[in-house]
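Need the bound structure for aspartic acid, inputs here:
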Amino acid sequence: MKKRRFPLYVQILLGMLLGILAGFVAVRTGHGQFIDHWVRPWGQIFIKLLQVIAIPLVFCSLVKGVISLKDIAHLSRLGGRVLLIYIGTTVFAIVFGLFMALVVSPGKLCDASHLSGMEGFVQTAVESAQKATEGKERGPLAFFEDLVPENIISAASSNQNMLQIIFFAILFGTALLAVPAEKTRAVRSFIDGLNEVMLKMVDFIILAAPVGVFALMASMVVSNAGNASVFSALAVYTLTVAVALLCMIFLFYPALIFFFSKMSPKRFIRAMYPVQLLGFTTSSSSATLPFNMETLEKKLGISEKTVSFVLPVGATINMDGTSCYQAIAVVFIAQVMGIHLDWGDLLSIVALTTISSIGTPGIPGGSYVILTMVLSSVGIPSEGLALILGVDRPLDMLRTSVNVTGDATVSVLVDTPDTDKA
Ligand code: ASP
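Answer from helper R.:
Posting the output first, comments after.
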């Protein structure tokens, strides 16, 4: 097979830069309409391709995640702790991400009144949110009422019903565990196979990312008539995510290790460095899993028993970097589009992101699909993803490093054979 000349992330970056350039040239030379008619649709097609696989992908990953929890039940005492720490660190990462995004407010640097291309989306979102609450006096249990779908086909007919799909997937996975394995072999291998196919589809779609990002950036520049504030907002957003993720790696995890284990954070950081680098370069926590396991066992002396179940489960369900980034991305997109998020919305973001991080595959760009669903679920048009895709690759690399460090930290916390706090 012929080798690609540039790695994909370089192509995406090039797509972004060329898109911005093409947009500015079109604005200058009065070819805005050409971009609108002939380039913009390719960006929309790319976003739609990401959206179309969202529901089957989330369903399969979640059912697989629930099935893998069976191993946790086997090691009940340790398992309960592991699960609790996984959820705890994920929630912390999201709340920290929200805090950073609300304090720095990168999206507010962008003058929303110029975002003419987004007006339509914002209006649609506001209208659909209004329609949802119209004429209904909503009681305190409305959230739970909405959580349960009355028909799985109609729930799956809109990406806005992500929580209903999640609810059904968890119920389905739990029931699958309760039925004797010999009766469900076919269903399990079907879900396994379907999951693999979905991941392959993500692979294919991501290959189109350079073209998609080019089109999205060019049409964004045109619809903003060269308004540069979007780009300064984007730069501050990138920096905010990077700083938040670095804080997770260099402050949060070492602090957990320091306070809750007997290992020295210095030793942990030193041993983890190559693993983080592999996560960074591959952008895939699944691909980093074997090396992460080996490092924990051989360099940090964590028992094989702990590593062999804490890490694989973690690589599937625990994604602190991804969760932190999603929280910042959602707030940023909402701010740029001038959509106000109240406390209820923020709470939904915490809940949704926590659950959806379980359904995020550990592959490069695995969270794009999930992010489109989180956005639509809180009433933000998922086209907003266009804003951040161009700068996403380096952030994907960084959040994968956080994801793998998070899994390793939990292994150390639940199994610390060494007693050197040096
Ligand atoms: N690339 C990430 C991982 O493999 C997932 C994501 O956030 O896109 O952990």
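Comments: The chain has 19 helices and no strands. The CA atoms of residues 43 and 212 lie 4 Å apart.
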